[in-house]
Amino acid sequence: MFKDQEQKYIDLLNSEPNQFILSIQGLIEVVVQKFVKTGRIRLEEKNDLKQQVNEYLLKKMPRIQNQYQRRSSLKTYLSVIITNICNDIIKHENKITIVSLEDSMIQGYDNQALENLIFKEEIKKLKNTINLHPKNKPRLLLLLKIKFRMPVGVYDFKAVYPHITVFDFKQFMVRIGPYVENTDVKIFSALTEMTAKHENKKNTPDAIRKWIKLKINELIDLMNGDPPVSKYNEETIQILFEKCYYKETQTNSLQKNELCSSGLSVRKLANVKPWS
After folding, report:
1. Which phi-psi region, left, alpha or beta, contains residue 39 (left: φ > 0; alpha: ψ -120 to 50)?
2. Alpha helices (H) along 16-150
3. SS3 call for 64
4. What is the DSSP letter of 197?
5. Mean pLDDT across the stretch 65-79?
6. CB-side exposure of 13: number of CA atoms within 13 Å?
7. pLDDT tens digits, residue range 165-182?
8. 67-86 CB burial, b ≥16 within 10 A, e <16
9. Which letter, b or e, does each residue of 203-238 get, where b requires 16 or more Cβ atoms within 10 Å of its Cβ?
């Protein structure tokens, strides 16, 4: 439903810009009202500011159409632009007056603040997508952490194998160590033994590999949309997943003193800093 509505607004943006501006009056109202609540403008100046925002959007609509490339939701993109417009007006004058606004407000789409907004939005999107698998979520999280060589602890395994002991966990880690440098085949072989012992199920390393690959592809498809409006791949899913769960995993492990001593804690993750 959300994707259909988003696409409808995108189509309107590109085909009927005047109608599009009329359709986003609610968003303009929300943004401008924030400036009233924070005392940036007086209540009696609110309608004047909204009018100037509309005039600017209409004037610069071709530029806005060209700049929007679906790196974020259209609502996020417009919220930043409208906020920049309001800031620019207030910066130039302490009262509401017609000013000449620069294209830099649209170019501000690339600034760090928007990048942070987009990244937070993408992480939230991944979490919501993973939550679409409630039955398989613990297994999915465990296997993705292992696939991406993230820290894991007893609590990760207990979510999948409730009767696992600390001794079982330590045996597993000894069996696969060194964790970060080892192959999927060896790690998945150890997982098949774990599954056989605690779930009484026969499995193969290749079956685990295929299941993980299937689930990653499902996440990619769901994140990209149907028809695709994004370009996620396994690498971007891994980056978002690590940003999303590495800090949480590390905190839980340290709190429970479960962080593995056979190589997990020495992974530097130089290019993947936990989100803060």
Report:
1. left
2. 17-23, 25-37, 46-59, 61-67, 74-92, 104-107, 112-130, 137-147
3. helix
4. H
5. 80
6. 23
7. 999 998 898 888 777 778
8. ebeebbbbebbbbbbbbbbb
9. bebeebbebbeebbeebbebbeeeeeeeebeeeebb
